[in-house]
Amino acid sequence: MKVAVYRKAHFNAAHRLHNPEWDEAMNEKVFGKCNNPNFHGHNYELEVKVVGEIDPQTGYVIDMKVLKDLIEEHIIQRFDHKNLNLDTEEFRQLNPTAENIAVVIYRLLREQLDSTFQLTIKLYETERNFVEFPVH
Amino acid sequence: MKVAVYRKAHFNAAHRLHNPEWDEAMNEKVFGKCNNPNFHGHNYELEVKVVGEIDPQTGYVIDMKVLKDLIEEHIIQRFDHKNLNLDTEEFRQLNPTAENIAVVIYRLLREQLDSTFQLTIKLYETERNFVEFPVH
Amino acid sequence: MKVAVYRKAHFNAAHRLHNPEWDEAMNEKVFGKCNNPNFHGHNYELEVKVVGEIDPQTGYVIDMKVLKDLIEEHIIQRFDHKNLNLDTEEFRQLNPTAENIAVVIYRLLREQLDSTFQLTIKLYETERNFVEFPVH
Amino acid sequence: MKVAVYRKAHFNAAHRLHNPEWDEAMNEKVFGKCNNPNFHGHNYELEVKVVGEIDPQTGYVIDMKVLKDLIEEHIIQRFDHKNLNLDTEEFRQLNPTAENIAVVIYRLLREQLDSTFQLTIKLYETERNFVEFPVH
Amino acid sequence: MKVAVYRKAHFNAAHRLHNPEWDEAMNEKVFGKCNNPNFHGHNYELEVKVVGEIDPQTGYVIDMKVLKDLIEEHIIQRFDHKNLNLDTEEFRQLNPTAENIAVVIYRLLREQLDSTFQLTIKLYETERNFVEFPVH
Amino acid sequence: MKVAVYRKAHFNAAHRLHNPEWDEAMNEKVFGKCNNPNFHGHNYELEVKVVGEIDPQTGYVIDMKVLKDLIEEHIIQRFDHKNLNLDTEEFRQLNPTAENIAVVIYRLLREQLDSTFQLTIKLYETERNFVEFPVH
């Protein structure tokens, strides 16, 4: 009786794509306008998927209020209205592509959830570009 | 040549989360405002996924009009504009959480579909909370 | 330099359409399945529009956090997860059609806003049915 | 470290469902109004999913600009503002159901992508009808 | 106490933009790929707005079921799964641009509605292109 | 025979709300987390509305390709993937609130359009916060 439950949240952040091991020309060539040294930004839409058994007492896989609060405390407060490159530990050395942001969010939430739950992160950078991690 | 086809539908219903084996304080603590004895309600958005082989004669996995009519007859007419707790057999004893509603819809449609089809139910309680059953 | 600013919010409620001056047959005829005595429900999507001058100090017509908090305090806390007919003063005597709910929300917010602002309420009962008040 | 990346695109096309081996009555019976000899049309919404490893140099699975350009060149320019039955090689003999269009798009993109990538196509014919291929 | 009520509906149709008084080169220059002689198509999303007084007996401006049925009978059955240029009287001589389709829908619904109602038509040709008529 | 036509576009930008005439405490108090000195960002969704007469030759109010190109050249290329405060002339002295951005976009497009057209700008900063200018 495994069911997947999903919870959506969003945060607004600035970022810049950049590989410090490359020179400017290479960064410009690979990342184009996403390499703008003054940053640009997005409304990130986050979809958290948790798979588990239905608890027969509650009818819940996980209490959505608990899941919502975990996302708020560990993801939204960390990244909302922040400059990912400058204001966060996680992306000081790591390029904040959508792929890498999804992996980081996965790891932050993974340690908050009971290991019996399966966790998947979907992150929309724009309505037309989005990513998912892990791939089962 | 397996393809998945999806059909969306929706219904509006009232419900209340409640475990009759618990006292009021426990119900209030676990279910919060969802335990309101006078009920609240939702626009449930339903996404039915059917996986099967393409029929080379029609180019269809299943005729969408047939699938639409099955959903209308067995799900929408049963739950639309109803109080799930009071007006339906299915939730007289079963807590109408999104998880349980998805499982019930799965069972109702599963018996209408040829066993060669794989079936999955996704149910949106709000734009931000949704569930899926079964998990393959 | 008048600008319109919009803020969206939502609430989930149960309701029933009913005119107590009519007999059951007449109520059934006019309101159909919306007359279900056990109620049904909706995810109401609310769009609040405020028109005013841009304040040259802030660049704001009105601080969105202030507007968000007014909506939360005076509308969402009053109606969210409630049965409109049974749990609220406003609809004890008034039929909770989308039209009437929009008028009630308008009046509740109108007294919270400075009279120099123009106010309009748009209320989505479903994605396909919605109303607006007042009409300027 | 496999991540899925998604890119959306759209195209507008006319089509008609028809099996040339059947007589008119049979076509009319099976395909209904979709069999209209003068065609009808859709805004097709296309979601391309590519699964692969994150490149540690770029933080990308695949450069979204590259993926966007592949979709533009091989799918959009081929099908946008076209009559699928009359203007395209692919559907001269093949019934342009959503299922078949998804399979065709899959094959066209499959040969453009490195074989280390896993590819999935999701195609929305309307907001309520959509398909996915292949099913993993 | 005037309130606006909105009802959404949709239809799928093929069309072609063409001015028979111009030669092919001129048509191609002005209408580009929309001039394809074999047609292309859209999922047209229609939003009908009706302004009137709330009836104190019902709490309705107009019964949404009545409005839904008028749209179904006079618009959807006329245009859904049709080729606007070939299958409809209205666009045999009139170029089926979004602007002209909106005007035609306005006139068809205007004669079905009591003259005390104000009527406005909004028509989405794609998510990014839409029109409204009349402008009050 | 006036018709309104709408065209949507989007751009991604970083910004920071700040009044240089105030001290840090005052800026922090008024703008909160939007005052982050390292910036944050948004996916701005832009809706351009143009009102005019239908040209009987084309059936158009304005050629959507022309309107799309004007928006691309004068708005998207100027603001997309930019830091509004640092990279643009328009917001070097002007606080880039949604209200002010809408006014700036209006002025930039107003000078590109024939004066017989009426122009309105709607700008979505998030799905829940948006503004419109001018108010007619």
Structure description:
The structure is a homohexamer of 136-residue chains. Chain A is built from four helices and five strands. Chain A is elongated and about 60 Å long. Chain A is α+β, with helices and mostly antiparallel strands and 136 residues long. The first copy, chain A, has a single domain (2-133), classed as 6-pyruvoyl tetrahydropterin synthase/QueD (Tetrahydropterin Synthase, Chain A, 2-Layer Sandwich). Helices cover 30% and strands 31% of the residues of chain A. In chain A, strand 4 (118-124) and strand 5 form a beta hairpin. The mean pLDDT of chain A is 98. In chain A, strands 3-1-2-4-5 form a five-stranded mixed sheet. The longest helix of chain A is centred in the middle third of the chain and has 16 residues, at 64-79. Chain A starts with a strand and ends with a strand.
The CATH architecture of chain A would be: 2-Layer Sandwich
Oligomer: homohexamer
Calculate the terminal CA-CA distance of chain A, rounded to whole Å: 18 Å
Number of helices of chain A: 4
Topology of helices and strands:
6 copies of one chain form a homohexamer.
Chain A: E1 2-15, H1 24-31, E2 40-53, H2 64-79, E3 82-83, H3 84-87, H4 98-110, E4 118-124, E5 129-133
Parallel strand pairs in A: 1-3
Antiparallel strand pairs in A: 1-2, 2-4, 4-5
Short summary of the structure?
The structure is a homohexamer of 136-residue chains. Chain A is built from four helices and five strands.
Task: Name its key features.
five-stranded mixed β-sheet; 30% helix; 136 residues; alpha+beta; Tetrahydropterin Synthase, Chain A; homohexamer
